[in-house]
Amino acid sequence: MAETFIARSYAKINLGLFIRDRLPNGYHDIETGFAFIDLSDRMEVSPADKTTITCNDPNVPTGKDNLINKAISAFNHAFGTSGYFRINLQKSIPAGAGLGGGSSNAAVMLRLLNRIHEKNIPLDELCKVGAALGADVPVFIRCETAIGTGTGTELEYVDFQPDYHIVTVWPGIHSDTREAYQMCEPGGPPEEPLSGILTEYNPDEWTYLLRNDLEPGVIQTYPQIGNLKDQMYDMGALYAAMSGSGSSVFGIFDQEVTAHETYQYLLQLDYRANLTPPGFQPDHGVYLKG
Length: 290
Prior knowledge:
The chain has helices at 67-79, 101-116, 123-131, 137-142, 177-183, 194-200, 203-209, 215-221, 223-234, 256-268, and strands at 5-22, 28-48, 52-55, 84-90, 146-150, 154-157, 165-170, 239-242, 249-253, 272-276, 286-288. It is α+β, with helices and mostly antiparallel strands.
């Protein structure tokens, strides 16, 4: 009987997203801090006669455009492997939420293939393959907090996972990343090194030091996102922002009671919300199904 491998595919938030410049090739030179929240998809992978993806979310494409399929092709091309797989993807990370769900799935597929084929390929090599799939993919391969520069693929690993409660809410809006970048105005680099801001200042000071340059355009299109950000502050958040290109919003809280009250309040409003404990560390292991 074929072995089945299981791994978790975690979501990220962006602590600051500075668009330093618009590049001639249409991409953007950015600087951002990647942190993680306790929200994950579950992936089960086993060898099969042909590659198929099943998913609990009917809105997720399961054909050749799915980043998981692209990750398999990229891995085979880079490392001379082959094979077909039955993949079951249980989605919890919403699409179009600015939480990196698709990129995270691709990164975890690369790690799963590394284990399945017993290649022991260094993570740095996997990151190079992942970078061609998407700018966010490399940070999910290591699943460590990092400062991303360039198009986001140049990573400096710095430990700044907030030692605070993080409440994340998705307003049910699908925000298009390409459109968000087209609408943005580059604001230049941060006034201080981002790694210093995230390690030397408290979150209540981040309001004055961090910005997400994609926020203004996206909030203009979807005012509800701005309203949720304001609500986070009204409920007692030390810092609140839109994550990535949206549409999710997160708030950082120092009081457990306040964080829980905010989380429960958002659930009562029928939003999809998440509560992440202080100092959260994602489990990036690959396991055999028992």
